[in-house]
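Bench notes, bay 3.
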Amino acid sequence: MGKTATARLFEQEGCAVWDADAAVHRAYGPGGAAVEPFRAAFPEAVEDGTVSRDALRRIIAETSDALARIEAIVHPLVAADRAAFAEETEADIAVFDIPLLYETGGEREMDAVAVVTVPAEEQRRRVLARGTMSGDDLDRVLARQIPNPEKTARADYVIVTDTPEHAREQVRRIVADIRRRMNDA
């Protein structure tokens, strides 16, 4: 959808940005908070002192309750990382880049939600062009997510990432609107 590039646009506008995927990488990395819980729950997922995403994919494919068990380990760690970021940031606006926000009920913790979007065929083209997943993999991922039209309908702000310039213009309007609202409060 272009969420990473859009998050950078928010940073360029002076917002502090927290990235859920980066938090997971920190937790899975050497000395990360997820390593020991995974070693206890799924020892085969820990390789060279880190949590292997490839091993987790295999475990999820082979074990029916694995995803729920993995999420039970990871979600609290990511939530703690997010809370620490929110406590420490000095920026007037904090942006939380959370891929599965609606699916996890995280929108209830946000003051406003912005959804980044493109048409489904463009999303598919972008994902498959990365070469990191197949069409079947993408279909499985999308099947676990709330459909994009529902997300955009629920959002306070929608950012269409059809061109970098259009996305930048929308981000600037959103930041200006939030700052105006903060000043009026």
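Next record in the batch:
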Amino acid sequence: MGDRYELKKPFPNLPAQAQPAVCRILDANLDRAREGLRIVEEWCRFGLDSSELAGECKQLRQEIAKWHTQDLRAFRDTLGDVGTDLSHPQEEERAGIQQLLQANLCRIEEALRVLEEYGKLYHPEMGTAFKQMRYRIYTLESNLLGYQRQQKLLRSHLYLVTSESENLFAVVEAALQGGLTLVQYRDKDADDDVRVETAQKLRQLCRRYEALFIVNDRVDLALAVDADGVHLGQQDLPIAMARQLLGPHRIIGRSTTNPDEMRRAIAEGADYIGVGPVYETPTKIGKAAAGLEYVRYAAQNASVPWFAIGGIDPTNLNDVLSAGAERIAAVRAIMEAEQPTLVTQYFLSQLSRLQTLRALKAHLPQSHVQSNNLTS
């Protein structure tokens, strides 16, 4: 940018008495945008280990900095700024990383809009430059949320699928307190107004515990409550159509019961798949169990995250894990448990133990593995 943006005759169409105020507005919002970007950049760098997202934040910061000239800084009057004491209770706390990032992304977008409008008074190219940056921030926001969702999905090994319950919210929260990071709201019978209200409350719960929230079947409901994604059955909307409606950054899962359905779901772009039902379950009335053989097939052939599902509980968990599962979905085992937190913790501890054993098995010589019986 350099000398090309040095002003020879500032504010040709603005009264002299208004010029200091506009400079202060530009200075304050340049600071605000750069600070917000630095906060987002730090999470992209250290929290997500994403050089691509961190790099985009850094590039935007540098482009904004080029506009932050000494001419503008000279008008800064912190002591005389009547807004320094203004605050809001929501600014005093952050419920989690998601809220922190969202707040700062909104802060950046607002600042860029101010810079776009007042910049038109300051320099003929400033309005256009900040309009383009604002659209880049919208893209960054979408990519960041999508990346976070995918990373959280990869780290999630236990998936709670809800069933009707008088204590629905208490059970889900108890499971979240036990470390659960992935919840699907499933209710085939409730009226839509009830589903919307329930889904909104569950989404708020999941956000509070920084867990992913997925809606069963209904793309429209997922959009209405700003869910992280949708889970589709074999008879539901095609994945391509769901993707078109949901956009590229939400999660789409698909139920599968055999290798053909698995291959098709992966080819169509499912972010994860359900594998089952492993055992017969009242959740899938009239559907024969796919059995452990399908679990073994998935372990060898699935190229996306997959969750063994269907009748899995603490009594048969080890059989499912021994067949090759690394992720499981549970319904009754948690929803009907007397102590959902403890059951959740048990599932997670067994899944974590399995990961540790398989990691050791992968790194130790085969003879040592066999002699120590480190099998899955």
